Amino acid sequence: MDGVETAQFSAVVVLGLLVLFYGGTFLISARIGKKDENADGYMTGGNNIGFGISAASMTATWIWASSMYASATSGYTYGISGPVHYGLWGALMILFIYPFGKRIRSVAPKAHTLAEVMYARHGRSSQLMLAGSNLVGSLISLMSNFIAGGVLISMLSPFTFTQGVFTVAAGVLLYTLWSGFRASVLTDFVQVVAMLGAVVVIVPVIFFAADFPAAFENGAGNLTPQQGDFFSSDAFMNQGAPYIAAVLAYAIGNQTIAQRLFAVRRDLIKPTFVTATVGYGAMVIGVGMLGVLALYLGFEPTGGDVNNIIPEMAADYLPPVLLAVFFIMIVGALSSTADSDLSALSSIMMADVYGQNMAGREKADPKTMLLVGRITMVVATAAAVAFASLRLNILDLLVFVGALWGALVFPVLASFYWEKVTNRAFTSSVLAALAVFLPVRFGWIPTDGAFGIVVDVLSVIGIGVVLGLMAFGFFGTKTAKVVGLVATVVSAPFAIGSLHEYATLCGSLVAYSVSTVVCWAMSVGQSERFDFAVIAQRTGDFDDGAARTPVGAAGGAGVPRPAGGTDGEPEPATGTK
């Protein structure tokens, strides 16, 4: 180490830590590798993963280095309420997944991707629309994790940002390439245990090393009135509200989440996602408070780059041993999500592009599918490394992708509950929502006139849609309609005339509202009814020799699955909620 101001590890130490981490995860992956790997196990681990592995994997996937960095950025930008807005709403969105997830698994018990289910429900255009959005989203996520790794390594070692990006990318690819999703979930368990332990130790140490609580008393003058207010309207409108909408879209549209939903045993969906909710909230809010501490200290990140806050705070206040633990924590966080992104990308290319559209389900060759999946991982890694050189703001990327997925939320969910939704309604609603979202989000059309009022009205409808969908998952249609209507009416007097000033929030809300209105209008008059029972018939294993060994089973002993490939009592597969 060179001292507190420019704390760095030597090249040998950093290489040793990386070899220890990635070498260990590779050995874990190698132990579960199969000489004759099968396609379905590579994508979903046999649809029978237990509680501990599933909960840890869900937590580790949602907790990525980007979420830690973004939470700290939120604290540094908006004050003490920033990490709470980031971590609390993100945690609650994990909770909101499980009621929808139970319905999704009941109608498609052995699917691999949501897009695959959309193919069975609607057809090719809806499938490719959802698959395409996930390819873009997962690639952006992969890129942002490589950025986080490059920043960390360049700051704490003699290596450059580019060298750091290449090292992290190679390490993640090394242990994920052979066993795919099975490697991802098993290594997630180890990684999340390490992260939890590190956070419990590291965050308090940094706080007390920075002279807490005196730092908060003496540094209050560094905050604006909004930053010092726990109920800051600035924090809510610019961080909390956009993130509420964005993470709901992440929960429904993200293949990394859907992949774990299809992998876990059906009777363990609720405890898995409830546990992940608590784990995510505690860790992300805790790490985000480092950004708040930096704000009180008057800390200026190098080059004004807020992505540097966490690694620089750690370098300034942690002793060498704990700095090494911190290093492993961040590497584990970014790796656990990066391997999930690679698994998600490979499953989309395997099931949706090759399995459904190129070869056809009946003619798809499992060995070719595995080859497609592994090639996808290599190509995606190379592309993410190339894009990482742009060093874009991680928080902006997260909110943008979440808002973009907002256009898909209502059409996707309605397709699982409402038998009237058609392929044309799905496709038209998503395209219409994107056509409105993009000019609003990027200010292509001035919003200081009539268009601004239109945006406000659509945004108010979007508020009702978001809150209505949340209520629908837990309480059903009647409650959802009441909540949505009340939310729209109550917010209208306050929002119309001013809400268009918040482009990030409005972009997300109009995506929800336009897709909902168009999808409903094009579906409500349909006389044809869809039989949800056919989805289970149209989705399932590609490989007749699919592995039946649950990930993490002792000694590799297989546990037979009940007839039909599901666990627990079968749930109704038809009708609406």
What does this structure look like?
By secondary structure, the chain is mainly α. The protein has a domain at 12-406: Up-down Bundle (Sodium/glucose cotransporter), CATH 1.20.1730. Helices cover 72% and strands 0% of the residues. Helix 4 (65-78) packs across helix 13, helix 7 (124-156) runs antiparallel to helix 15 (320-358) and helix 11 (233-253) crosses helix 21. The chain is globular, with a radius of gyration of 23 Å. The N and C termini lie far apart (60 Å). Mean pLDDT is 82; it is low at 1-7 and 545-577.
Task: Produce a short descriptive summary.
The protein is mainly alpha-helical and 577 residues long. Helices cover 72% and strands 0% of the residues. It is built from 22 helices and no strands.
Average pLDDT metric: 82
What CATH architecture label of the domain at 12-406 applies? Up-down Bundle
Question: Helical stretch count?
Answer: 22
The general outline is globular
Residue stretches low in confidence (pLDDT < 50, at least 5 long) are 1-7, 545-577
The counted number of beta strands is: 0
CATH class of the domain at 12-406: Mainly Alpha
Structural class: mainly alpha
> How would you characterize the largest beta sheet?
none
CATH superfamily (homologous) name of the domain at 12-406: Sodium/glucose cotransporter
Strand content: under 5%
Q: Report how far apart the termini are.
A: 60 Å
- The percent range for helix content is over 70%
Radius of gyration: 23 Å
User: Secondary-structure element sequence?
Assistant: HHHHHHHHHHHHHHHHHHHHHH
In the CATH hierarchy, the third-tier topology of the domain at 12-406 is known as Sodium/glucose cotransporter
GO molecular function, one term: symporter activity
GO biological process, one term: sodium ion transport
Transmembrane segments: 6-28, 49-72, 84-101, 128-153, 159-177, 189-210, 230-252, 273-297, 317-338, 371-391, 397-418, 425-444, 450-472, 479-496
Region (Disordered): 546-577
